[in-house]
Amino acid sequence: MNKDILIIDDDDDLSFVISDMLESYGYRVTCAVSTADAFDLLTDRSFALILLDINLPDGTGFELCRELRRVSTVPVIFASARTSESDRITGFDIGGDDYLPKPYSMKELLSRVNALMRRTYGFGGDERTVSFGDVTVSLTARSVTKGGRTVSLSLKEFDLLACLCGHINTAVEKDKLLSEVWGAFSAVEPSTLAVHIRWLREKLEDDPAHPEHIKTVFKVGYILEDGK
Known about the structure:
Helix content: 40-55%
Number of strands: 14
Mean pLDDT: 91
Oligomer: single chain
Strand order of the largest sheet: 2-1-3-6-7
Number of helices: 8
Strand content: 15-25%
Shape: elongated
Protein backbone atom coordinates (compact mmCIF):
# COMPACT_ATOMS: atom_id res chain seq x y z
CA MET A 1 0.00 0.00 0.00
CA ASN A 2 1.11 3.57 -0.64
CA LYS A 3 2.33 5.15 2.59
CA ASP A 4 4.13 8.08 0.97
CA ILE A 5 3.45 11.44 2.60
CA LEU A 6 4.41 14.83 1.16
CA ILE A 7 5.09 17.66 3.61
CA ILE A 8 4.93 21.14 2.06
CA ASP A 9 6.32 23.62 4.57
CA ASP A 10 9.18 26.13 4.47
CA ASP A 11 10.09 25.42 8.12
CA ASP A 12 12.92 22.91 7.60
CA ASP A 13 13.34 22.16 11.30
CA LEU A 14 9.66 21.36 11.79
CA SER A 15 9.57 19.24 8.64
CA PHE A 16 12.56 17.27 9.87
CA VAL A 17 10.90 16.56 13.23
CA ILE A 18 7.62 15.53 11.56
CA SER A 19 9.43 13.34 9.01
CA ASP A 20 11.40 11.57 11.73
CA MET A 21 8.23 10.88 13.72
CA LEU A 22 6.15 9.65 10.77
CA GLU A 23 8.94 7.47 9.42
CA SER A 24 9.27 5.80 12.83
CA TYR A 25 5.65 4.66 12.32
CA GLY A 26 6.26 3.21 8.88
CA TYR A 27 5.45 6.14 6.62
CA ARG A 28 7.75 7.35 3.86
CA VAL A 29 8.11 11.11 3.89
CA THR A 30 9.21 13.63 1.25
CA CYS A 31 9.52 17.34 1.96
CA ALA A 32 9.00 20.43 -0.21
CA VAL A 33 9.68 24.01 0.88
CA SER A 34 7.66 25.85 -1.78
CA THR A 35 4.77 25.45 -4.19
CA ALA A 36 7.27 25.12 -7.05
CA ASP A 37 9.02 22.22 -5.29
CA ALA A 38 5.64 20.64 -4.61
CA PHE A 39 4.49 20.89 -8.23
CA ASP A 40 7.75 19.27 -9.38
CA LEU A 41 7.29 16.36 -6.98
CA LEU A 42 3.61 15.93 -7.80
CA THR A 43 4.44 15.79 -11.49
CA ASP A 44 6.56 12.68 -11.09
CA ARG A 45 5.15 10.87 -8.05
CA SER A 46 1.95 9.95 -6.31
CA PHE A 47 1.42 10.41 -2.59
CA ALA A 48 -1.07 8.91 -0.16
CA LEU A 49 -1.45 12.12 1.85
CA ILE A 50 -0.24 15.73 1.82
CA LEU A 51 0.51 17.86 4.89
CA LEU A 52 0.23 21.43 3.65
CA ASP A 53 1.19 24.77 5.21
CA ILE A 54 -0.65 27.88 4.02
CA ASN A 55 2.09 30.53 4.04
CA LEU A 56 4.74 29.51 1.53
CA PRO A 57 7.53 31.63 0.00
CA ASP A 58 6.14 31.58 -3.55
CA GLY A 59 2.39 31.32 -3.02
CA THR A 60 -0.14 29.89 -0.60
CA GLY A 61 -1.27 26.42 0.31
CA PHE A 62 -4.77 27.49 -0.63
CA GLU A 63 -3.68 28.15 -4.22
CA LEU A 64 -1.86 24.84 -4.41
CA CYS A 65 -4.84 22.93 -3.02
CA ARG A 66 -7.18 24.53 -5.57
CA GLU A 67 -4.92 23.42 -8.41
CA LEU A 68 -4.52 19.98 -6.89
CA ARG A 69 -8.25 19.45 -6.58
CA ARG A 70 -8.65 19.94 -10.33
CA VAL A 71 -6.80 16.69 -10.94
CA SER A 72 -6.57 14.68 -7.70
CA THR A 73 -8.50 13.57 -4.63
CA VAL A 74 -5.36 12.87 -2.55
CA PRO A 75 -6.11 13.64 1.14
CA VAL A 76 -4.85 17.04 2.32
CA ILE A 77 -4.30 18.17 5.90
CA PHE A 78 -3.73 21.89 6.29
CA ALA A 79 -1.25 22.61 9.10
CA SER A 80 -0.84 26.30 9.71
CA ALA A 81 -0.34 29.05 12.25
CA ARG A 82 -3.27 30.81 10.57
CA THR A 83 -6.08 29.78 12.88
CA SER A 84 -8.93 32.18 12.10
CA GLU A 85 -12.36 30.76 11.41
CA SER A 86 -12.32 32.20 7.88
CA ASP A 87 -9.03 30.43 7.08
CA ARG A 88 -10.33 27.11 8.42
CA ILE A 89 -13.54 27.47 6.40
CA THR A 90 -11.56 28.32 3.27
CA GLY A 91 -9.36 25.28 3.79
CA PHE A 92 -12.34 22.96 3.90
CA ASP A 93 -14.28 24.73 1.14
CA ILE A 94 -11.46 24.33 -1.39
CA GLY A 95 -11.03 20.63 -0.71
CA GLY A 96 -8.96 20.21 2.43
CA ASP A 97 -9.80 17.11 4.48
CA ASP A 98 -8.54 18.33 7.86
CA TYR A 99 -7.15 21.51 9.42
CA LEU A 100 -4.56 21.36 12.19
CA PRO A 101 -3.59 24.66 13.84
CA LYS A 102 0.05 25.27 14.82
CA PRO A 103 1.49 24.61 17.29
CA TYR A 104 0.34 21.02 17.58
CA SER A 105 1.68 17.91 19.27
CA MET A 106 3.27 15.08 17.30
CA LYS A 107 0.77 12.70 18.91
CA GLU A 108 -2.17 14.69 17.57
CA LEU A 109 -0.61 14.93 14.12
CA LEU A 110 -0.02 11.18 14.00
CA SER A 111 -3.59 10.54 15.13
CA ARG A 112 -4.98 12.83 12.40
CA VAL A 113 -2.78 11.22 9.72
CA ASN A 114 -3.72 7.69 10.78
CA ALA A 115 -7.43 8.53 10.93
CA LEU A 116 -7.45 10.17 7.50
CA MET A 117 -5.51 7.29 5.96
CA ARG A 118 -8.04 4.81 7.42
CA ARG A 119 -11.02 6.82 6.18
CA THR A 120 -9.56 7.22 2.71
CA TYR A 121 -7.98 3.84 2.09
CA GLY A 122 -9.76 1.61 4.57
CA PHE A 123 -6.76 -0.10 6.07
CA GLY A 124 -5.42 -0.47 9.54
CA GLY A 125 -2.66 -2.65 10.86
CA ASP A 126 -4.08 -5.91 9.50
CA GLU A 127 -3.24 -7.61 6.24
CA ARG A 128 -5.39 -6.35 3.39
CA THR A 129 -5.81 -8.54 0.35
CA VAL A 130 -7.96 -8.49 -2.78
CA SER A 131 -8.68 -11.60 -4.86
CA PHE A 132 -10.06 -12.10 -8.35
CA GLY A 133 -9.98 -15.38 -10.24
CA ASP A 134 -6.84 -17.21 -9.09
CA VAL A 135 -5.03 -13.96 -8.37
CA THR A 136 -4.40 -12.67 -4.84
CA VAL A 137 -3.06 -9.17 -4.25
CA SER A 138 -1.59 -8.27 -0.86
CA LEU A 139 -1.82 -4.51 -0.63
CA THR A 140 0.00 -4.62 2.69
CA ALA A 141 3.01 -6.62 1.49
CA ARG A 142 2.85 -5.29 -2.11
CA SER A 143 2.90 -8.82 -3.48
CA VAL A 144 0.86 -10.70 -6.08
CA THR A 145 0.30 -14.41 -6.66
CA LYS A 146 -1.49 -16.21 -9.48
CA GLY A 147 -2.38 -19.84 -8.97
CA GLY A 148 -0.19 -19.79 -5.87
CA ARG A 149 2.88 -18.58 -7.77
CA THR A 150 4.46 -15.18 -7.20
CA VAL A 151 4.01 -12.69 -10.04
CA SER A 152 6.69 -10.05 -10.48
CA LEU A 153 5.32 -6.55 -11.13
CA SER A 154 7.13 -3.26 -11.62
CA LEU A 155 6.45 -0.45 -9.14
CA LYS A 156 4.02 1.31 -11.48
CA GLU A 157 2.30 -1.94 -12.47
CA PHE A 158 1.64 -2.69 -8.81
CA ASP A 159 0.53 0.86 -8.04
CA LEU A 160 -1.91 0.70 -10.96
CA LEU A 161 -3.23 -2.68 -9.85
CA ALA A 162 -3.56 -1.44 -6.26
CA CYS A 163 -5.55 1.56 -7.47
CA LEU A 164 -7.93 -0.70 -9.39
CA CYS A 165 -8.19 -2.99 -6.35
CA GLY A 166 -9.18 0.02 -4.26
CA HIS A 167 -12.16 0.53 -6.57
CA ILE A 168 -12.91 -3.11 -7.37
CA ASN A 169 -16.06 -3.65 -9.46
CA THR A 170 -16.23 0.10 -10.11
CA ALA A 171 -15.13 1.85 -13.29
CA VAL A 172 -12.20 4.21 -12.73
CA GLU A 173 -11.64 7.14 -15.06
CA LYS A 174 -8.36 7.34 -16.98
CA ASP A 175 -7.53 10.75 -15.54
CA LYS A 176 -7.97 9.46 -12.00
CA LEU A 177 -5.67 6.49 -12.65
CA LEU A 178 -3.02 8.73 -14.22
CA SER A 179 -3.24 11.15 -11.31
CA GLU A 180 -3.09 8.56 -8.54
CA VAL A 181 -0.39 6.37 -10.10
CA TRP A 182 1.88 8.79 -11.96
CA GLY A 183 1.32 12.02 -10.04
CA ALA A 184 -1.27 14.76 -9.90
CA PHE A 185 0.46 17.03 -12.42
CA SER A 186 2.16 14.35 -14.48
CA ALA A 187 2.53 14.86 -18.22
CA VAL A 188 2.24 11.10 -18.84
CA GLU A 189 0.20 10.31 -21.93
CA PRO A 190 -2.91 8.08 -21.77
CA SER A 191 -1.06 5.64 -24.02
CA THR A 192 1.31 4.93 -21.11
CA LEU A 193 -1.68 3.86 -19.02
CA ALA A 194 -2.91 1.61 -21.84
CA VAL A 195 0.50 -0.04 -22.09
CA HIS A 196 0.61 -0.76 -18.36
CA ILE A 197 -2.91 -2.19 -18.49
CA ARG A 198 -1.77 -4.49 -21.31
CA TRP A 199 1.24 -5.61 -19.25
CA LEU A 200 -1.01 -6.37 -16.27
CA ARG A 201 -3.33 -8.42 -18.46
CA GLU A 202 -0.41 -10.38 -19.88
CA LYS A 203 0.75 -11.27 -16.38
CA LEU A 204 -2.61 -11.83 -14.66
CA GLU A 205 -5.26 -12.82 -17.20
CA ASP A 206 -5.59 -16.39 -18.55
CA ASP A 207 -6.39 -14.93 -21.97
CA PRO A 208 -5.00 -11.37 -22.18
CA ALA A 209 -6.78 -10.74 -25.49
CA HIS A 210 -10.13 -11.47 -23.85
CA PRO A 211 -9.72 -10.35 -20.23
CA GLU A 212 -12.14 -11.59 -17.60
CA HIS A 213 -11.11 -9.19 -14.85
CA ILE A 214 -9.14 -6.12 -16.04
CA LYS A 215 -11.61 -4.66 -18.51
CA THR A 216 -11.88 -1.51 -20.58
CA VAL A 217 -14.91 0.69 -20.00
CA PHE A 218 -15.58 2.52 -23.24
CA LYS A 219 -15.06 6.30 -23.03
CA VAL A 220 -14.46 6.05 -19.25
CA GLY A 221 -11.40 4.07 -18.25
CA TYR A 222 -10.91 0.64 -16.71
CA ILE A 223 -12.51 -1.68 -14.18
CA LEU A 224 -11.24 -4.59 -12.13
CA GLU A 225 -14.01 -7.19 -11.70
CA ASP A 226 -13.70 -10.00 -9.19
CA GLY A 227 -16.16 -12.18 -11.13
CA LYS A 228 -18.30 -12.95 -8.09
